[in-house]
Amino acid sequence: MMADELPVNCRIPAITKYDGTMDPLEHLARFENAALLHRYTDGIKCRVFITTFARAAQQWFNQLPVDAIGSFQEFRSLFLHQFASSRKLRKTELSLFAVR
Question: pTM value?
Fold first, then answer.
C-alpha cells in the first residue's frame, strides 16, 4: 500500500499539519474531504496522509513497523486510536449538570 507511486500531478492538500494536540477526527475529516476532491486512491491516501503530520504525529508514524499499514482504513484506525485522547468531547446537558 505505501509503495504506491504518487502520480506526477498529485496535489498535496493545503490543510493544517496534525501535531497530536488537535482533534484527530477534525483533521481526518479535512483530509478525507481533500482526498475526495483530488480523487486519491486508497494507496495514495496513505502516502499523502503522512505529509499532514508534524511533531508527535510524525514521531508516532516513524516508529510504526514497515508493514503496519495495509489499507487507508487500517491507517485511519491506527491514527484515531493513537490520538484518541486529543478528541474534543462535546458537552451534553447531562455533563453540564455534573459541573459544580
Answer: 0.83
14 in any annotated domain: no
- The H or E element spanning position 67 is none
Contact 17, 53 (CB under 8 A): yes
Domain count, the chain: 1
pLDDT above 60 for 50:
yes
Note whether 12 and 51 are within 8 A (CB). yes
- Give the residue numbers spanning the domain of 69: 24-97
Whether 2 and 69 have beta carbons less than 8 Å apart is answered as yes
Asked if residues 40 and 48 have their Cβ atoms less than 8 Å apart, the reply is yes
Interatomic CA distance for residues 21 and 29, integer angstroms: 16
Cα separation of 55 and 20, whole Å?
7
For the chain, give the percent of residues with pLDDT over 70. 85
More confident residue, 10 or 94: 10
- Rg, the chain, Cα only: 16
